[in-house]
Amino acid sequence: MIGKKQEPQPQQEQPQLSKEEYAAMKQAEREEVWSRVNAQAELVFKDDDSMKGFLNFMAGCTPQSTRNLLILYEQNHEITHPRTFDKWKEAGRSIRSGEKGYIFFAEQEYTKEDGTIGNGYTITKAYDISQTRGPKVLPPQQHLPEEIIAAMVENSPVPLAISDQLPQGVQAQYIPKQHTIFVRNGMDETATICAIAREQAHAGFDAVGSGYYRQAYAAQAYCAAYVAAQKFGLDTSAFHFDKVCQSYAEMKADISAVFWATSSVPPIPLTGISSAVSGK
Questions:
Q1: Range of the domain at 242
Q2: Where are the beta strands (DSSP E) in 112-263?
Q3: Does a structural domain hold residue 272?
Q4: Whole-model pTM above 0.85?
Q5: What's the structural domain count of the chain?
Q6: How far is CA 119 from CA 9, 46, 65, 67, 111, in A?
Q7: Are residues 103 and 40 in the same domain?
Q8: Interatomic CA distance for residues 188 and 54, integer angstroms
């Protein structure tokens, strides 16, 4: 009837979940996200092109866990610098209105039953830097090949030595007994950088202390060399990943190890994005 005041409709209360129901809901959420991570891993190892696509994404993204790299890549190939809302706030940046976050694994400490602190994760949302407002982001500084080599030597997990005694066809080799990487003398800069990155990955695996032997980590180190070359803007046309993809079934039980090696590539001290987002 016209002029009659409408009575407000009572809002339906959301049912409260019990502790067990909430735990079951979160477990189902984790299982669904992990199934997406595993499905993306299958796609990455499909062929040479798919592997290169993922490694290119890895080279252009800030360092992340393997699970985050896979779930982020599944959602958007263009992500370069993801952080949670709180982390962006700490960095002095805000999320643009209307932006939707990406599924993301955030590290989280928790207290075990015995009172000790454990490291776990929670599934949350992250936002790429392109979804934020803040200080102007400067382009990354370009570095000469000799500067890259110098930084790799300085940040190497083990000493490097120039050698004229390496077997024919061997550009560089990590020798576990001597904890040293021997690098062939007289190579061009691209070959030198890729060879050092590959062998530093081998040295990184040896440092883990899990019974290192070279052949077991050949694919991982090869991926590390490619990511280093891609990150530094070098020619990567000589890289092919057909054999890596073919051997995926054998490495499937520990897929994270395939990509963990790339984190052993020593960082080049850059001005630009890292300083811009921190407000320095």
A1: 145-264
A2: 117-128, 132-133, 160-163, 172-175, 180-184
A3: no
A4: no
A5: 2
A6: 46, 32, 14, 15, 9
A7: yes
A8: 27
Band of the pLDDT at 267, cuts 50, 70, 90? very low
Q: How far apart are CA 6 and CA 107, in angstroms?
A: 50
CA distance 113 to 116: 7
Encoding tokens for residue 202?
A: 């081998």
**Of 134, 155, 175, the domain-final residue:** 134
Residue 230 lies in a domain: yes
Report the alpha-carbon distance of residue 172 to residue 163 in Å, rounded. Answer: 9
Amino acid type, 208? V
The pair of structure tokens assigned to 67 is 């699970």
Same domain (yes/no): 202, 153: yes
Does 166 lie in the same domain as 123? no
pLDDT tens across 81-98, in order? 999 999 999 999 999 999
Locus of tokens 């075990």: 112
